[in-house]
Design goal:
This protein is α+β, with helices and mostly antiparallel strands. It is 17% helix and 33% strand. Strands 3, 4, 5, 6, 7 and 8 form a 6-stranded mixed beta sheet that branches. Strands 1-2 form a two-stranded antiparallel ribbon. The two termini are 25 Å apart. It is built from 2 helices and 8 strands, in the order E-E-H-E-E-E-E-H-E-E.
């Protein structure tokens, strides 16, 4: 995934978040076994992108260039989110929505 990962902040400020996890991770719902956040996914997009959802539908919007066949899009979303949040892919768990556009992920402690 050679695409640049950018997160559009709520105030329209663009900031690359690869390797930074502070303010974005604080907005996620915290339970005993990690932090949960919702994601709206758009497969077959023009470029890979992670942005804060300003519509209020989900916490993040993720656009990936792969097609949603055989879990390829889910794998791409997991990798893109891990890079954007600065965590290992093994710490991200897809909790709900394996076959849906709307997904819930958990970042394990």
């Amino acid at each position: 995934m050679a695409a640049r990962i950018r997160v559009r902040q709520k105030f329209g400020i663009h900031a690359c978040v690869a390797g930074t996890s502070g303010p974005l991770m604080d907005d996620f719902t915290r339970f005993g076994d990690g932090r949960y956040f919702s994601v709206r996914v758009t497969p077959k997009a023009a470029r890979n992108l992670v942005e804060v959802d300003s519509d209020g539908i989900a916490d993040l919007r993720v656009r990936v260039t792969v097609v949603p066949e055989g879990g390829k899009a889910n794998a791409a979303v997991t990798g893109l989110l891990a890079k954007a949040l600065g965590v290992a892919k093994s710490r991200l768990v897809l909790v709900h929505g394996a076959t849906s556009r709307d997904k819930v992920f958990r970042v394990r402690n």
